[in-house]
Amino acid sequence: MSILPFPKTSLSKEEILASMRAARDRDVQWQNGRVFGLVYHVSDEIDELLKEAFTMFFSENGLNPTAFPSLSKFENEVIAMAANLLGGDENIVGTMTSGGTESLLMAVKTARDFARVQWSVKDPEIILPSTAHPAFDKAGEYFGVRMIHVPVRADFRADVEAMRDAITNNTIMMVGSAPSYPHGVVDPIRELADIAQARGILFHTDACVGGFMLPFVRKLSYPVPDFDFNVPGVTSVSADLHKYAYAAKPASIVLYRTSELRRHQMFVSTDWPGGIYPSAGMAGSRPGGPVAAAWALLNYLGEEGYLNITSVVMRTTKILQDGINAIPGLKVLSNPEMSVFAIASNKLDVYELADELSLRGWHLDRQHFPPSLHMTVNYVHAQVADDFLKDLTEAAATVRRPGVRKAATKLLVSTANALTRVLPEKWVKSLMDKASSMMGGDGNLPERMAPMYGLMGTLPNRGDLKELVLDLLDGINTYKK
């Protein structure tokens, strides 16, 4: 890491803000709807409300509700409104968190500790479809819980019978997604939760993506399978406020069917000289801004506002999906229930397609198993759907044409795979080190990423891939002149 001297003198406000604006100018232009994910935007009017509510509680700390009862009021009311939206009754309790990952971490930690006390399980396991969010694996690594991944059906939804067969005496919880992030399809939650209830284990619905969207999609008469507390076997639900509730980051919730279950999420220290130290979730100090902004926006929009937004989003999703399916060689995977889906192809290299779209100013996440491009459609995309389809058509035509670069990429990927199967382990490690520096291990990602994703998606040794990604992550998160 290069050394950056600590500032000896102060800069002016104008200099600082100008430097920050210059740095931001290199970011993807989400304000114009050029990003299908990461940012959820409705309007400048709503952004102003969020900023005002956020900054009103800029300095307050949610760690101590006795000092800031306003934040406790806002949080409890957000939880109560969300519980009502998600089929809950007066027994539902919950906590606001910093995002979907923390919500899932808390759900896993709670299940582990509940199982320790109630069932004396020492080697806990959780059964989940292979499409479930990797935050579950992160939780398993953090909390010593083994994650049992079960392959999904051809439509990318959880395989009910395969998940039933995976249950053992160590199983403490099953998981389903509503919807899964990669393909936007809702798992058969009712069938899975029925199994969990019959076996006397917990069931978590990960509705981080759809929790504040699917209820309104259903109210608009689109078909939505049961997924929330209306299903008796569901014992916990997570839902992100900073996604389709359009609240300020970072904000999510995790809900539990009973307060008895939620108690296993909480931490209390009683013997510290500094006093009694309780915390409901992972964080100690908690920013008040996201709590206040979420409360403000739920009350500002209400059901009427969310229904209007959802109607626009679903119409836009239909336009995009029909347009994608009409482009030769492209298709939408499966039949997603809402506004999240994946673009795939049996004829075109979708990673090359993503590169071409990037050159035209669009940002789509790359996925694998199978290779696909992720689409999360939100309100702002209604303004740019036609522009996107036009650029996608042109990009597909470019990728369809043969070229030296595409042939070289294909040769690189196939050669690398062949070599990793036959060369000694030390040689493969040396090759991976060289590949890492070529593909951005120094913190500078290449303009075209198709070779990198092609290699990552097909490496036979996933351990090699993990090391390569760690190199990339290490390089990106290290200061360099």
Task: Describe this protein's structure.
This protein has 481 residues and is an alpha/beta fold. Among the domains are: 54-297, Type I PLP-dependent aspartate aminotransferase-like (Major domain) (Aspartate Aminotransferase, domain 2), CATH 3.40.640.10; 404-476, no CATH class. Helices cover 46% and strands 12% of the residues. The protein contains 16 helices and 13 strands. It has helices spanning 13-24, 44-56, 69-85, 100-119, 135-143, 160-165, 189-199, 214-219, 259-262, 288-326, 350-359, 385-400, 404-422, 425-438, 450-458, 462-476, and strands at residues 93-97, 125-129, 146-150, 171-177, 202-206, 236-240, 252-256, 267-269, 277-279, 331-332, 340-344, 366-367, 372-376. It has a 7-stranded mixed sheet with strand order 1-7-6-5-4-2-3, with helices on both faces. Helix 8 (214-219) links the parallel strand 5 and strand 6.
- Cα-based radius of gyration, to the nearest Å: 24 Å
| Fraction of helical residues | 40-55%
User: Mean pLDDT score, rounded?
Assistant: 90
Give the termini distance in whole angstroms. 9 Å
Helical run tally: 16
Q: Which outline best applies? A: globular
